[in-house]
Amino acid sequence: MKHARVVFEGRTFDATERDGQLLLADGRTAAFDAVQWLPPLAPVPRPRTILALGLNYADHAKELEFKAPEEPLVFVKGEGALIGHRQTTRRPRGVQFMHYECELAVVVGRTARKVKRGDAHDFIAGYTVANDYAIRDYLENWYRPNLRVKNRDTCTPIGPWLVDAADVPDPQALALSTTVNGEVTQRGSTKDMIFDVPFLIEYFSSFMTLSPGDLILTGTPDGVVDCQHGDVIVTEIERVGALMNTIEES
Amino acid sequence: MSFLPTGTVYGVLLNFRAEFGALAPRMHEPPYKAPPKAPVLYVKTANTWTPSGGAIALPARVPEVEVGATIGMVFGEAGRVAGYVLMNDLSVPHASFFRPPVKFKCLDGFLGIGPALREGGDPDAFSLEVHIDGELRHAADFSQLVRSAAQLRADVGEFMTLRPGDVLMLGCNAGRPLAKAGQRIEITAPGFEPLANTLVQEAA
Q1: pTM as predicted
Q2: Closest Cα to residue A39, out of A112, A153, A129?
Q3: Domain A39-249 carries which CATH code?
Q4: Architecture of domain A1-38 in CATH?
């Protein structure tokens, strides 16, 4: 099943997808373009941990002139960076290179501590699509990628759907693609991840307990390009969804 | 009921002049190649939070931890400061600051959190001391920051909103002491209720 969170007529609703419409928790239906889409994540009692991988596809590491990492390159985001589907991401005026990153996002379903990779699937609630924008102008070699690059307001669209894990039997066999104004600029497959989803669950849960609703953004493949004011970016992952976002310079 | 944050807890590296100065000779060398321009931030995820009085378990692979005593600025509505709280920001000691420090700083329990929010006060006049098993091991004077609390808040706010409940820690001074399982760490500061945590060995 596909789950969403939306604002409709001024109220926030859990919703699911049915026949090309949103079925709201109160039984009404709404068109996709009649709502404001929120990140498809239920509220959690403590701030959500959002882990994000860098250089987790060999071709992207090569593109950025890095050798593939020997252990996951991971950074953390605050929840304030997240926005929903069909929202606007700000590009600061004067920036030279701001690019999207289409990423499979894993949503943790159960408290995970010292989980072995063979059991990892049992701890996953589902999957969604994240677009982990980066503004390379702000990169510095201190805790790189630094938060000024990766933790900006509006710079992590996520959604539209949380798709149940049961509906994604093999998360390592999904096509990814990104279009800019309808033109395909990025193509890849989750089969090319350096550290796959079960590995990541095992690795992180070996030293930090993951809680329901925590996120792991699993990195992006080759093919990132600069995005300009007015560009419409669609990051899409097979079986999971197509996340649309518009760039606005300000 | 002891204080616990409701938002994201951010830390900042290199915000004490002595800490910055100690690394300055290496800042132009690889992998850094230049001193930092923006505040160097990291996140202490919710799994790290330990209330004051709680035990903090060290995994077997971590014989000693670095004690990062600091004060967190807690945000309220519209970016206003709601108050301040003592923090014991533990790290697995690490020499390189090139990559994000998740595996060094985000271990379960690795952030001791002061028992109470202090409302008001002048952060430039704050100071603290660290006692380990009763012995004075460290001191920090918050008039010695690279970016004052106000400047740090402004420079971070340039690229991200500090939301109600978020915490921005002001930094840790040079000469951070090490501690090991069995030891009791107490952080005291004028005007604050003390923060104490005991380190224990993680059960196998």
Answers
A1: 0.97
A2: A129
A3: 3.90.850.10
A4: Roll (2.30)
